[in-house]
Amino acid sequence: MAVDTVSMDKIVSLCRRRGFVFPSSEIYGGLGSTYDYGHYGVLLKNNIKARWFEAMILERDDIVALDSAVILHPRVWEASGHVEGFTDPLVDCRTCKLRFRADKLEDSQCGRKPSKHPGETPECDLTEPRQFNLMFETTVGPVQEEGAKAYLRPETAQGIFINFKNVLQIARRRPPFGIAQIGKSFRNEITPGNFLFRVREFEQMEMEYFVPPAESERWYRYWIDERLNWYLRYGLRRSRLRVREHGPEERSHYSQGTSDIEYLYPIGWSELEGVANRGDFDLTRHTEFSTTKLEYVGPDGERYVPHVIEPAVSLERIIVAMLVDAYDEEVVGERERTVLRFHPEVAPVTAAILPLIAKDEGLVSKARSLYEELRKRQSVEYDDNGAIGRRYRRQDEIGTPWAFTIDEQTLSDDTVTVRDRDSLAQERLPIGGVRRWLDDALERDWKTPKGD
Ligand code: GAP
Asked: Which residue has the CA at smallest separation from atom 20 of ligand 1?
């Protein structure tokens, strides 16, 4: 039976146990909502980034890559509206000295009576709401003076807008075309939490798609579909995904239309990715603030400011969704196993190579040479530590789709056993054909056995 819903606690505990994610600065008592990625977490992240990069850039002719700086000219954030408007309303409680988001009081707990919300008890003494900017400030240069104030970027998007002219000229593009980038963003979130879901430092994957103004609605719908299909392609269940269109009152200052692709996280339906129709807001504002004209001029002299469609997501939100979707527990032969049913192209390790007996030189030598052959192209792991059942369970918990076992029979007929993580089916195949078998297996369509 597939596990239908898993708690965030189980996900956190598996991530820690298997070294995907650690609380950051742990030996100093930790730093709220900041995490470090261990070996399997890094492999998982790299795979997700690679799949996004393939779909957004390598498989298309109309999108190019960019890697802009984290610290940009401070005027960028004035033009974008972040200095003025990237704020949350906060209240302080003079009694318990805690700070809360004024618009989320019903989701917060009173510091003295955690069963109550702030403002609910007679002792609560809340200040009037004040706007608090979410950008992290820093100083460029050795002197802490006003002129040198800068910010860590709260989104990667602005680095794309300010390079619009460079890309237009050098990559010789004409709308519709896109610029995509992956990089760290920083926000001093006031109510972070829920593991990686809302953190202060995260890796965004954003793409700005520049289109003729009259085509913006069509491309907005197109990108909602494209991005939804990407999640389905990499195995998320359809029943756990939905598109929610924002009402006008909910939209950001720049938006002419926004839809969230939501996932059913353990905390309920929440934003996984946002797709926004930003109109000409960004290019117009940067033209105004920088005095550099950001527009498209066609060969026959037509000129216009393109409109922008933006799909934006963080790796962190994808990782939580993929972990939740993949997590499963089942009883096999009276033993419980925990398994991460990741899509094979996302799984941190594609295959494990397991010599049945660690001390048998013949088996070890065959296993090592298979491992050396496969590791040139795939993320594979050699494991000769412990009983075979324990090794399988270890691989199940990190989501390795296939395990190749080298046993006595290998020595006589050069065949190995391949075990499938999901079905637990085993088949024998020639050791010389493993590389090809693995390539073919990765090409096959994969669907989670957990259903739709
Ligand atoms: N450029 C537009 C933009 O940044 P956003 O809705 O503020 O829009 C885009 O963020 C995406 O970044 C979100 O859909 C979410 O996936 C991710 N994200 C935003 N804040 C985050 C946080 N504090 N922790 C993790 N991911 C976050």
From this structure: 198
Q: Which residues contact 31 (CB under 8 A, 6 or more apart)?
A: 24, 25
Among 208, 251, 281, 317, the mutation site with the greatest number of ligand 1 atoms within 8 A of its Cβ is 317
pLDDT of 168-214, one tens digit each? 988 888 999 999 999 999 999 887 678 999 999 999 999 999 999 99
| pLDDT value, residue 191 | 72
CA distance 325 to 322: 5
Reported as type and span, the H/E element at residue 351 is: strand 351-355
DSSP annotation of 247: P
- The pLDDT value given to residue 3: 65
What's residue 2's pLDDT? 59
Distances (CA, A) of 155 to 32, 152, 161, 185: 20, 9, 12, 5
Q: Give residue for tokens 């820690």.
A: 16
Beta bridge mates, 361: none
Confidence (pLDDT) at 107? 81
30 CA distance to ligand 1 middle (Å):
23
Say how many Å lie between the CA of residue 419 and the centre of ligand 1. 39
Positions of the chain with pLDDT under 50: 1
Helix 39-53 to helix 315-326 angle, to the nearest 10 degrees?
110
115 alpha carbon to ligand 1 midpoint, in Å? Answer: 30
Q: For position 357, what pLDDT does the model report?
A: 94
Specify the pLDDT at position 293.
Answer: 97
Which tokens in the block code for residue 26?
Answer: 């742990």
Lining ligand 1 with CB less than 6 A are 155, 157, 187, 189, 198-199, 202, 204, 206, 271, 273-274, 310, 312-314, 316-317
Task: Please report which residue ranges of 215-349 form alpha helices under DSSP H.
Answer: 216-233, 281-290, 315-326
Ligand 1, pocket-test mutation among 33, 52, 230, 314, most atoms within 8 A of CB = 314
Between the CA of 388 and the centroid of ligand 1 the distance, in Å, is: 42
